[in-house]
Amino acid sequence: MAPGSKANKKATVDAAAWMFNVVTSVGIIIVNKALMATYGFSFATTLTGLHFATTTLMTLVLRCLGYIQPSHLPFTELLKFILFANFSIVGMNVSLMWNSVGFYQIAKLSMIPVACLLEVVFDKIRYSRDTKLSIGLVLVGVGVCTVTDVSVNTKGFVAAFVAVWSTALQQYYVHYLQRKYSLTSFNLLGHTAPAQAATLLIVGPFLDFWLTEKRVDMYDYNVVSLMFIILSCTIAIGTNLSQFICIGRFTAVSFQVLGHMKTILVLTMGFFFFDRDGLNLHVVLGMIIAVLGMIWYGNASSKPGGKEKKSYSLPTTRQQKNGDDSDEGPRLKA
């Protein structure tokens, strides 16, 4: 296959992966918002456990059909991933409860610098000036869209700190595990989804009761709310899979930067479906700034030197240099 056709094929698959993630992520947010706001199902952690239980069923079916091949992931690596992932989910829910919406959004935005730091420290990635500036522009744009009132308290700050670092580590680890153990997105989901489902379904009801003072088993289930729960779980299969596909093909930083397109789409769709007063001039301005930043980031990071690993060369001593010169001298004269 010619290099040009390979590049075109990769670009097509990359675009399809992003579109898959954007559609499923926005879809699940809209469905969950309707489920929680309209039907009062406020048990977010338990619902996430149900999402992973449904994803586990999908991986079992695909394994039986032969689409997922046997693979190995050490228990210690799986345990670390589950800790990061579950602390991320719990931390986000607690952070939303203990913080103002403005500080919660700022905490979410800080995931990009943290993800950059992890790549710099562990992968020795170097970012160009344009790449750094484009990331900054995205942060400014999304901040203008979402950040309103900002108030900070100690326990809220601790919850946000845990949520940000655990989320960044979980997303970094998705990319790391796929590379190190040659795992596909399906393979990795097959290892992690059952463990996450089990832990979240055990912890979820207790955590949700602590956060909402309501019991999930006492919820007034009906046909419509059950349909929304099933729809949410079905979409979650695509959301979980597409996240692993995107981070595996790209990096956690790219996933976070371009992923803010989902924030813009959620704001826009929320305007049409829920809050007609939510879209004003400064929100539209923030959206435009963020989109320009994403376009700039995509262009800057794809250029040579935009985002690359540092290369280290051994230092050359003066004695070695003189030795090299003396060796080259006679050869030049010969």
From TrEMBL:
Annotated transmembrane regions: 12-31, 43-66, 78-96, 133-150, 156-174, 186-207, 219-238, 250-273, 279-300
Any one cellular-component term (Gene Ontology): membrane
Predominant place of localization: membrane
Ranges of residues in domain Sugar phosphate transporter: 23-297
Source superkingdom: Eukaryota
Location of the protein in the cell: Membrane
Region (Disordered): 302-334
InterPro entries: Sugar_P_trans_dom, TPT_transporter
Entry membrane topology: Multi-pass membrane protein
Keyword Thylakoid: no
Compositionally skewed regions (Basic and acidic residues) per UniProt: 321-334
Keywords attached to this entry: Membrane, Transmembrane, Transmembrane helix, Transport
Protein name: Sugar phosphate transporter domain-containing protein
